[in-house]
Design a protein that fits this description.
heterodimer, A: mainly beta, OB fold (Dihydrolipoamide Acetyltransferase, E2P), 5-stranded antiparallel β-sheet, 3-stranded antiparallel β-sheet, B: mainly beta, 1 helix, 10 strands, binds zinc ion
């Protein structure tokens, strides 16, 4: 197919691409459980919630145990350190990215928790990062804490023998001694 | 309960293909183009295939810049996402030399100044990028 252009458009550079951004504006209500978690963050605390039936600790809790369908009514404060159960080394920039490449995103199971938190892993070169590694949160200064997970700037390696993670993304069993975050 | 604004933006960019590309190139150059259909009718904005016979369409022609309103709707209270910050009309505009109408904005001032049959002409932006917004809006053609 050969296009016949009007005279006036024959000697100008053709447009071949067009920006069509989509923008969605929400007014987000955190809900009871997330509000509890974020108010904890303002006080330099990581608060999980436990199921009254299976005693699994969710952090951040969505408010109910997905296995038992009951409210996670018991608030459990976690100490902070956790185990890297999976991670990803990001080598490619994306639109809006502010991180210097390469960097590591990690799935962290906080000690005493039964689910994972996704966060940045820093102060470690990507080739030293490994599954089973212990990491700890690095917080902003207290004066700069806000009701956002970004109040934890990142997690960094902790000098502690690696935990056993049978499989990437597999839940570590803490046993009763460590339940509730006692290290 | 905590509440916060949450904005999700996707920075999509599309390839235009040669026909829509020519229309957008025209906008950047302050030239409006349509395409000649199999039956000789001029379709604006131009499309790639004939709506009746489905054959490739290839002959782009200049139209406008003026045109006539064939339908309109008055927006009394525009919100922040709309193209003008004061009341305006959305209108179907059949550009001179075209046989179909396209949607655009008419900055008519008040609803009693625009109706089917009103003649309008584009107001171009100074900075044009090859997008439909290169026409800031249409305005009512001055009759002398
Ligand atoms: Zn449960």
């Amino acid at each position: 197919m050969t296009l016949v252009l009007p005279e006036s458009l024959r000697d100008v550079e053709a447009v071949t691409r067009v920006a069509t951004p989509a923008r969605l504006e929400y007014d987000f209500t955190a809900g009871r459980a997330t509000t509890t978690f974020l108010r904890g963050i303002l006080e330099h605390k990581i608060l999980g919630e436990a199921c009254p039936i299976c005693h699994k600790v969710y952090v951040p809790s969505r408010g109910a145990c997905p296995s038992h369908g009951v409210p996670t009514s018991e608030i459990v404060e976690l100490a902070g350190p956790g185990v890297l159960v999976s991670y990803c080394v990001v080598n490619v920039a994306f639109h809006g990215s502010v991180m210097e490449l390469p960097y590591v995103g990690g799935l962290i199971q906080l000690e005493g928790a039964d689910m994972f938190l996704m966060h940045l892993i820093q102060e470690a070169s990507p080739d030293e990062v490994r599954i089973g590694q212990w990491v700890e949160p690095v917080w902003r200064d207290d004066a700069d804490l806000e009701a956002t997970l970004e109040s934890i700037r990142y997690f960094r390696p902790l000098d502690r023998p690696d935990a056993t993670v049978d499989e990437a993304g597999h839940v570590v069993s803490w046993g009763p001694a460590t339940r509730g975050g006692a290290a | 309960m905590l509440r916060a604004p949450l904005v999700i933006e996707y920075p999509f960019e599309r390839t235009t293909g040669p026909v829509v590309g020519a229309f957008l190139t025209g906008l950047r150059e302050r030239i409006l183009v349509g395409i000649t259909g199999a039956d000789g009718r001029v379709i604006v904005p131009p499309i790639e295939y004939d709506p009746v016979t489905a054959e490739d369409l290839t002959e782009l022609v200049e139209v406008g810049p003026g045109g006539v309103v064939t339908a309109c709707a008055w927006v009394a209270r525009p919100d922040a996402r709309q193209p003008l910050d004061h009341p305006f009309a959305w209108a179907l505009i059949r550009l001179d030399g075209a046989d179909t109408a396209m949607v655009h904005v008419v900055d008519a001032g008040s609803p009693d100044r625009i109706a089917v049959g009103t003649r309008v002409t584009p107001r171009w932006r100074d900075e044009r990028v090859g997008a439909i917004g290169d026409i800031e809006c249409f305005v009512i053609e001055e009759t002398s």
